[in-house]
What does this fold into?
Amino acid sequence: MVKVKLYIIVSLLAGSLVVNSQSLKQWGEQLNKLEQKTDPNNKRFDLLELSKGLKEIWRDENDINEVLHHTNKLTVSKSADKKMTIAAFGNSTYQGVFQLEWLVQYDNRIWSFSEKFNYNGSKSSSDFTYTLSGSDADLYSFQINDGKQEIVDAIDVVTKCKFEELQQMQGNEQKDSLNTVLLKRLNFLWSDKSKFETSFKQLKRMKTLISDDEKVKICTYNIQKEGFNQLFYGAVILNDGDLKVIPLNDTSPKIKSPERSTLSDKKWYGAIYLDLIQNQSGNKTYYTLLGYKGHGEFVKTRVIDVLIVQNGRLRFGGPIFKSDRITRNRLVFKYSAKATMMVRYDSREKMIVFDNLAPTEPMFRGVYQYYGPDFSYNALKFTKGVWQLRKDVDLRNPKLN
It folds into this structure.
């Protein structure tokens, strides 16, 4: 009886190996046929499906070696310590656009990423230069270069993968546990002075901004908790001779009057900052921040804040936002989760322009789930140390307002 069971198990394993070998061969053949297709949309779809398929059938190093027997369109990079393997392939889709798929195997898991970039050269991803390198700190950098431009510049592949893993998790406890690991890695990157000018553009889940004077760098990201609750994380890195990393502690729920509050890194009105505008007035430098606070079930929130650095200490908010006779420390906009609000800096006119928000009916005044853009625009102009509100701006010709 034992021998029969053992025979069945061995047979099943052998059958599984044969099936997987056939799948790997078919995958390689599908990649070979991709260049014969001409429809850009079909090629885009097929590239994504090939990435998904490889993720499903890739189990270990032998699988990648098997695929390489059936195609020369796949490029494989391995770290010196053999802990990480990266497989990359791609093809031209629309005219002048190349789509690159790359998958990372690390710590018995696989992550997949997709890049699109302008490229008018060869149609084969094998013409690119791939560089995967590790360090004693367990950091793995990965670059893809076509000889003219850096297509991928991942300063730490593991951190990039951890961000993706964080997005896939469901429970708060799991997210908090992984975020602790993620913050440890980020702090290592933030503290490296040689990386201060790095924009971390491959860490797409985190927004990184650097001031014009290159003295302030701000990195922010968010975690969506259960019940549409948003919690924000990040750091301000000061570069004034020595490098100083100041973590940001989001206490948004405890801040009852954000537009009137002056805050700090320990009491921060958390947001993902999308833009940073540097202004000077007298001997003070103002770093104005355009931020997004995510959304709840019914309401989205945007914020325009200001950061002031004094003697290595941070102050968020200041009485520089003026509207008629009212002065605020920051501006907070709340509107329907179904709507979209425009807030951007017009560098040519040196103004922050944004949609004017209004309720759909007068009876809903103050009930922000019914607010949205009313097709008029306002602007903020920095004059004599304050952002002065200008209402009903014509964006086609702001100078006439």
